[in-house]
Backbone:
């Protein structure tokens, strides 16, 4: 409920910012005000700065030989700089590759530890294995995942279908990846249906059976939450216009039919 209140507050702030800037440049409308709020968070900025510093340390480590990984880290560093300096989330979806690599490094740490416990005699660790064990980025994805999800959710909430293919796809992938750690995952999944029903309806059949079940469960959880009476002092979310509600319900029925039992 706490996160629901935060999103309601952000929605109010977005509305105020859009109204106040109606005569200003177009880049001050839609998702932009919410993303600026997210990237002004002291805690978020400290985490992004820490990641930038750790990436610099990793890039300085000559034991990391893989050039594709190095290029990905350089690109991730540029995205983090853009987020910090410009409070822009334009390229945040690119950080999903960083997340995948960081999680892979954690799995490698676990595997190395398992081998060291079971192998007799123990084999000396290779430089690459020692790098994985000492990698400061390994597995450090929870806070980053929250930031990624908040920004991509803001694009969905503020721009809907107009957010474009790359951002909507990144929002879907981030939600499926972080559903266990991002508390707003049910609302985020449901917003994809509410704000981008046509895109979601078209994309859903291409998901794996596991991902279909996960996404549908998240949407159902949010629908159940939204059906509850509001808490004291809580302002209920405004209903969608009739045409948008019809498109949302059509998309919901479509994913229900296509979700394995």
Residues:
């Amino acid at each position: 409920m706490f996160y629901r209140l935060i999103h309601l507050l952000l929605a109010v702030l977005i509305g105020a910012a859009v109204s106040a800037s109606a005569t200003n440049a177009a880049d001050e409308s839609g998702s932009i005000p919410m993303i600026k709020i997210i990237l002004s968070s002291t805690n978020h900025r400290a985490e992004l700065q820490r990641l930038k510093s750790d990436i610099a340390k990793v890039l300085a480590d000559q034991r990391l030989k893989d050039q594709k990984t190095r290029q990905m880290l350089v690109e991730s560093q540029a995205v983090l700089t853009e987020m910090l300096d410009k409070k822009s989330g334009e390229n945040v979806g690119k950080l999903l590759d960083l997340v995948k690599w960081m999680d892979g490094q954690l799995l490698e740490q676990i595997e190395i530890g398992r081998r060291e416990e079971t192998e007799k005699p123990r084999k000396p660790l290779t430089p690459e294995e020692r790098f994985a064990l000492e990698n400061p980025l390994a597995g450090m994805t929870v806070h980053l995942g929250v930031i990624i999800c908040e920004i991509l959710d803001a694009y969905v909430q503020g721009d809907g279908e107009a957010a474009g293919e790359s951002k909507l796809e990144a929002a879907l992938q981030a939600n499926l990846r972080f559903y266990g750690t991002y508390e707003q995952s049910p609302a985020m999944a449901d917003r994809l249906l509410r704000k981008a029903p046509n895109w979601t309806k078209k994309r859903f059949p291409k998901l794996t059976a596991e991902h279909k079940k996960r996404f549908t469960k998240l949407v159902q959880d949010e629908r159940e939450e939204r059906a509850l009476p509001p808490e004291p002092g809580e302002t209920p979310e405004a209903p969608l216009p009739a045409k948008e509600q019809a498109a949302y319900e059509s998309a919901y029925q479509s994913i229900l039919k296509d979700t394995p039992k």
In short: Residues 31 and 155 are 5 Å apart (CA to CA). The radius of gyration is 21 Å. The chain is about 70% helix and 0% strand. Residues 1-27 have pLDDT under 50 and may be disordered.
